[in-house]
Design brief:
The protein has 163 residues and is of the alpha+beta class. Helix content is 21%, strand content 39%. It has a five-stranded antiparallel sheet with strand order 1-3-4-5-2. The two termini are 16 Å apart.
């Protein structure tokens, strides 16, 4: 029996709701100067700033995957991992960014060993004119041995993937 659009989004909602409030801690490892320089080139097109200011602050929240990543055969059709939120599978849904709010506490220093705490803060299933919509609010907190670096609050919108 195939899963219908309404039951699939409800299944993902139930799975997400079960982990709301749980914190997953991920040791990201040491941030290298080379990684910051590469990011600076990607953001600004040059090495003039050598990853200072806003570019350096944005680095942590801009990296989507800190490991080698899943095998290509394990990726969803859109190229994303099935579990981008550390705790529940969103396979079958189309995810869209719904906004991001960042708070910067300190600049990232090359050589820092960074820890990430990820929490699904809220999950809501809404009925809209165009169908059911899953609204996910994710909080990511980045810190090093000296304390808090960056807080990132993100909203993601999920819809049933078109057949």
């Amino acid at each position: 029996m195939s899963v219908t659009a309404s039951t699939l989004i409800e299944k993902v909602f139930a799975s997400a709701s079960a982990v709301v409030g749980e914190v997953s801690r991920i040791e990201l490892g040491t941030v290298r100067e080379l990684d910051l320089q590469r990011f600076d080139v990607a953001v600004s097109g040059s090495l003039d700033g050598l990853t200072t200011g806003l570019s350096r602050q944005l680095y942590l929240s801009s990296v989507l995957a800190w490991s080698d990543g899943p095998a290509e055969s394990d990726l969803l059709p859109d190229g994303n991992a099935a579990d981008p939120f550390s705790g529940f599978d969103v396979a079958g849904l189309r995810l869209m960014a719904g906004g991001q709010d960042l708070t910067f506490h300190r600049d990232l220093t090359p050589g820092s060993s960074v820890t990430l705490d990820v929490k699904l803060a809220d999950a809501q299933l809404k009925d809209t004119k165009s169908g059911r919509l899953l609204v996910l609010r994710v909080e990511r907190v980045y810190s090093d041995s000296d304390g808090l670096l960056t807080e990132c609050r993100e909203t993601f919108l999920g819809r049933e993937a078109l057949a």
